[in-house]
Amino acid sequence: MSRKFFVGGNWKMNGSKKVADELLSNLVKGPLDPNVEVLIGVPAIYLDFVKEKAPCNIYVAAQNCYKTEKGAFTGEISPSMLKDIGIDWVILGHSERRQIFQEADTLIAEKVNHALESGLSVVACIGETLEEREAGQTEAVVAKQIKAIKDKICNWQNVVIAYEPVWAIGTGKTASPQQAQDVHKILRKWLADEVNEAVAKTTRIIYGGSVTASNCKELAKECDIDGFLVGGASLKPEFVDIVNANQ
Ligand SMILES: O=C[C@H](O)COP(=O)(O)O
């Protein structure tokens, strides 16, 4: 069963209206491979601005949202607020949320569940630290992270899993195609064993961590790598080349 290639650009806490305009015009100029689903994860304050201007073949995503709809949660935004301005996607569980903002597996899983129940599609991020990899714990760590999500959700249809080894994020140290493939394969088997075969076959598992125009083609050749979540390079013109990695 073929899975449509999926490339997300996570702008993180970068940009301005001017930068957003530049990045959007670069994407519009493309040309983008029509066989690829493309997403941009935009700082909350620019979501409305970008959504108004983005062409309809580009998904606009929030980089976070909370696990409930409304109330006394200063600084948070809810899935229904995102839906209200036409946003259909959210990135959850990014390692920067886990590490800097101490988001635990349970909270992330609750957020994923609530986002899905509210009609959003989710890019759910998981990945091990360097210490965990060096201690031989990669498989156990990603299994624990994905299990937390599995325990809360009942439908995987609108989930994309992003495997992002923390040691590769923003460091220029990309996982080798084999290192990434090994973990993606483990995750797909985990889905087959713990959820079901159909979910394992259809769920996109994308790789993130220092993906660039120079390394994307080799990574894209691996059979369990269904796309990328791109940080730094999504703020550069080369993002178009990464979207087109399969061409
Ligand atoms: O969400 C994207 C990842 O954190 C990867 O970031 P990076 O491409 O700058 O390493």
Automatic annotation (TrEMBL):
CDD domains: TIM
Any one GO biological process: gluconeogenesis
Annotated Gene Ontology cellular component terms: cytosol
Enzyme class, UniProt record, top EC level: isomerase
EC number: 5.3.1.1
Catalytic activity entry: D-glyceraldehyde 3-phosphate = dihydroxyacetone phosphate
InterPro entries: Aldolase_TIM (IPR013785), TIM_sf (IPR035990), TrioseP_Isoase_bac/euk (IPR022896), Triosephosphate_isomerase (IPR000652), Triosephosphate_isomerase_AS (IPR020861)
Superkingdom per UniProt: Eukaryota
Family: Belongs to the triosephosphate isomerase family.
Subunit-structure text: Homodimer.
Protein name: Triosephosphate isomerase
